[in-house]
Amino acid sequence: MPAFTPWSALFLAAAMLWLPASARHWSLAPLGVAYAWAWADGVIDPVALAWPALLIVAAVCVRRDASSTYTRTAGHALFLALAAGLFLHLLPGFHNPLVIAPARLTPDAVPFQMYLNLDKPLVAFWVILALAPPVTAANVRSTLITAVLACAAAVLICLGYALAMGVVGWTPKWPDSGWIWLINNALLVTLAEEALFRGYVQQQLAQQWRHHRWGAAAAIAVAAVLFGLAHYAGGWQWIVLAGMAGAAYGVAYRYGGLAAAVLAHLGLNAAHFGLFSYPMRAVF
Question: Which residues form the CAAX prenyl protease 2/Lysostaphin resistance protein A-like domain (predicted)?
């Protein structure tokens, strides 16, 4: 495995995104260290630096005091194009290391592998730093309660449905790779996905439709459908399951902020990883 140290800086940067809004910009310091270290270790090529630079351009364009609506629209379009490329690992310059080699975590499951990504997390930094979506509810207690309720609903409905369909089986385990999976899922995977689908898509739509009676619900639904479609690689079953989970995360975001959505998402993923076939049964 390539040197792991750049990710200690990246994990620190992601954790700092949860600081109060006035202090979040300090996360750019460890993020810069992570990229410099990754460059030195050969994990990224110089061309990879073009994408953070373009994200900065997009952030400048979408400011509320931008000179025109056209400028803001161009900034959002640029961000969406970059986000798609970063999420799908289509933009060149990244050599994300494989940290969990392909293996069956349980005999009934398809092989699972995991990379540590330097591209996808950039989306979370952009959304949180450029747009400052609500991170919590009015108080921490409300955020935690919302997260727990949304997670419980997602686990019962989504994993229950997956179990009933035979997509997963009941296979409790915690492999040696579980801790790096959990850290990566908590600080990079769920944060990036919730920042994009809830902090960006749902938040932007809710603002656009705020004068409509069903605007908030429609924003949750659209973001959930897009989240489901993003899981197309797993087949129609995963599109449906992810869409249902996305609705739960959307409700968590609506009432508890981004932190509630991330916690609900992480809780479901952890339950799936630790208690059921992961990522899915080989035959269903």
Answer: 178-270
Give kind and range of the element (H or E) at residue 114: strand 112-115
Instruction: Report residue 90: phi and psi, to 5°.
Output: -95, -20
The full set of domain ranges for the chain reads 5-275
276 DSSP β-pair partners: 170
CB atoms within 10 A of CB 205: 18
CB burial readout 134-153, b (16+ within 10 A) else e: bbbbeeeeebbebbbbbbeb
Summarised one tens digit per residue, pLDDT across range 32-47 is 999 999 999 999 999 9
Nearest to 124, CA basis, from 22, 195, 62, 55: 195
Determine contact, residues 277/206, Cβ cutoff 8 Å.
no
194 in Cβ contact with 261 (< 8 Å): yes
For 241, other C-beta atoms within 10 Å of its C-beta total 25
Helix and strand numbers (H, E) in the chain are 12, 2
pTM of the model: 0.96
Q: What is the pLDDT of residues 189-201, one digit of tens each?
A: 999 999 999 999 9
For residues 223 and 252, what is the distance between their CA atoms, to the nearest angstrom? Answer: 13
Residue 134 CA to residue 19 CA, distance in Å, equals 12
